[in-house]
Amino acid sequence: MEIKWTSFARVDTVSEEILTSMKAAGCSAVSFGVESGNAQILQTINKGITRDQVIAAVEMCRRTGVTAHASFILGLPGETPQSIRETMDFGEQLKELGLSYGFHLLAPFPGTEIRTNSDQYGIKILTDDWSQYHANRAVVETSEVDRQSLDDIVIGWEDEYTLLLGDIKERMLKNTASDQEAEQVNNLERIVLVYDLIMKNVIEQIGSWRHNGQSLSTRANLKILSEKVNSAVDATPQLINDTLDHARRHGDLQCRNDGEMIEWQWVDHIGMTNDD
Fold first, then answer.
1. Which of 120, 147, 177 is the last residue in one of the domains?
2. Domain membership flag for residue 98
3. What does pTM read for this prediction?
4. Cys-Cys with 108: which of 72, 115, 127, 146 at CB 3.0–4.6 Å?
5. Which helix (H) or strand (E) holds 157?
6. Least confident among 21-35, 97-111, 115-129, 181-195
7. Where in the sequence is the domain holding 138, given as residue range(s)?
């Protein structure tokens, strides 16, 4: 089956043999949660990996032709300006080996050890507004790193990434961007739009209507939905239609017709059983 797919993995569980098989089966990229470039922080959070294992995993990806990605979390217990610099330098070292990386910020949800024992870990929790727990802006501080410092780093990285995407978009218009670059931009735009739709409950609010006895195809009903969504979000009609159609084709959005009402719904894959 000629299907392209990506994967998440730990750096201490991949091998060259596994990556070779994954590549042969259509895997184009693997994402690793590295979290920090500081050995002491990795030990404190019980990550169970070393910097050497990270480097080895990235090198194996390069040799097997699988693109390696990594995410780092800033604001972890024991974070200091020096440990942040160490993490950023480590990211640049890995980038030279062919890895791309990005930053998120610690978001200690209820039930996690780090939230339960935040005082013990030296973490100051700044808010219980769960809408802010998206890991892109600081909701914690450490004794040596404040919220603004953490936000500045992530915003700077976002700005750099935005410039990169802008460059790719310009080359897409000139037909000089690679297929992989174009798909990266298209996929990101779809993800951002879906996130916006979910956070604003757009589909739940405007995704239902009476069809007055008309028997329309799913594609026709999707066009109606796209027109409704167009007035609720800031996106081009083409992006809206492509995103909704992509979600439908991948089983993330479904249309129900009970004979009177058309109802579009997001599919809760986690809640599904084998009988579904």
1. 177
2. yes
3. 0.72
4. 115
5. helix 147-173
6. 181-195
7. 5-177
